[in-house]
């Protein structure tokens, strides 16, 4: 055809028709992989206190012994979405009352969070309903004073545990640590609580960035630096030579400069590693309504 006719924009015209042909697209089209979205706002609460945005979940159960009888206990994890810090509690049951008491202990020691992320567990839903009812029963003046201190619950969609991957991964680390420490032994409740606190300290001591083997490089930041101003709860405070007012006689300025340095390292070292995209390097159009698609599933077992 090209020997006899000069077709204007022939190649693009043929490609356009091929894109409209459903049968051709079915055999030739490659899967459209959407680009990874930006990090949610809960992961970027820069300058906010730890556990401002918190994810939580229960894990267990674990068997403990009280005298001659045995009972079950569950673990409750609170995971800071920004600093990656972890707080662990023990609950005696999976009801709303046990969770509310554990939440009160957490808020008394770590501060009340602004928002909570969790799955659709009955204990979480029941606790949110009870807190909402208690707030509604308060007087108008008290409601105005406590309006800014309300905790917002964000529930994941049903049957979607991958929405809580941030804290589900920590649950796996905690279970592995408890398995190594306890084996299959049934221990008293005090021992289980002590082990959980030790595991919490270990998780909060792990580096958030790349741990270099060069002795001249600075150590990567850890959640304990943002929680208590030092790398390890068992070690003395970290001695740093800051740039401004680190040697001030006013202790509050000294502490503030140290916290600012830790946050600066957190922003420059850890946050950029979260947004690295090794797969999605080119822009592709996202799927929209009324688009015809072919769903590609996993291949089934061969018979």
UniProtKB/TrEMBL annotation:
<dbReference type="InterPro" id="IPR001584">
    <property type="entry name" value="Integrase_cat-core"/>
</dbReference>
<dbReference type="Pfam" id="PF18701">
    <property type="entry name" value="DUF5641"/>
</dbReference>
<dbReference type="InterPro" id="IPR040676">
    <property type="entry name" value="DUF5641"/>
</dbReference>
<dbReference type="GO" id="GO:0003676">
    <property type="term" value="F:nucleic acid binding"/>
</dbReference>
<feature type="domain" description="Integrase catalytic">
    <location>
        <begin position="45"/>
        <end position="231"/>
    </location>
</feature>
<dbReference type="InterPro" id="IPR012337">
    <property type="entry name" value="RNaseH-like_sf"/>
</dbReference>
<dbReference type="InterPro" id="IPR036397">
    <property type="entry name" value="RNaseH_sf"/>
</dbReference>
<protein>
    <recommendedName>
        <fullName>Integrase catalytic domain-containing protein</fullName>
    </recommendedName>
</protein>
<dbReference type="GO" id="GO:0015074">
    <property type="term" value="P:DNA integration"/>
</dbReference>
């Amino acid at each position: 055809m090209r020997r006899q006719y000069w077709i204007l924009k022939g190649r693009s015209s043929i490609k356009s028709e091929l894109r409209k042909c459903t049968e051709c697209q079915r055999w030739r089209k490659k899967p459209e992989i959407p680009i990874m979205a930006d990090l949610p706002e809960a992961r970027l609460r820069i300058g906010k206190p730890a556990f401002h945005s918190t994810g939580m979940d229960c894990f267990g159960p674990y068997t403990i012994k009280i005298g001659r009888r045995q009972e079950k206990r569950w673990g409750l994890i609170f995971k800071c979405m920004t600093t990656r810090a972890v707080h662990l509690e023990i609950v005696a049951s999976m009801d709303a009352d046990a969770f509310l008491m554990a939440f009160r202990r957490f808020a008394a020691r770590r501060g009340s969070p602004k928002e909570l992320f969790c799955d659709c567990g009955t204990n979480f839903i029941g606790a949110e309903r009870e807190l909402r009812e208690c707030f509604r029963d308060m007087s108008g003046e008290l409601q105005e004073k406590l309006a800014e201190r309300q905790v917002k619950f964000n529930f994941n969609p049903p049957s979607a545990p991958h929405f809580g991957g941030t804290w589900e991964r920590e649950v796996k680390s905690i279970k592995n640590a408890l398995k190594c420490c306890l084996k299959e032994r049934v221990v008293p409740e005090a021992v289980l609580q002590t082990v959980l606190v030790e595991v919490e300290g270990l998780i909060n001591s792990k580096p958030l960035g790349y741990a270099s083997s060069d002795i001249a490089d600075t150590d990567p930041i850890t959640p304990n630096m943002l929680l208590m101003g030092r790398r390890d709860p068992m070690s003395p405070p970290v001695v740093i030579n800051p740039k401004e007012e680190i040697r001030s006689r006013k202790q509050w300025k000294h502490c503030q400069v140290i916290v600012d340095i830790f946050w600066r390292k957190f922003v420059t070292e850890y946050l950029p590693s979260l947004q690295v995209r090794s797969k999605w390097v080119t822009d592709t159009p996202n799927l929209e309504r009324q688009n015809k698609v072919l769903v590609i599933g996993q291949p089934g077992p061969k018979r």
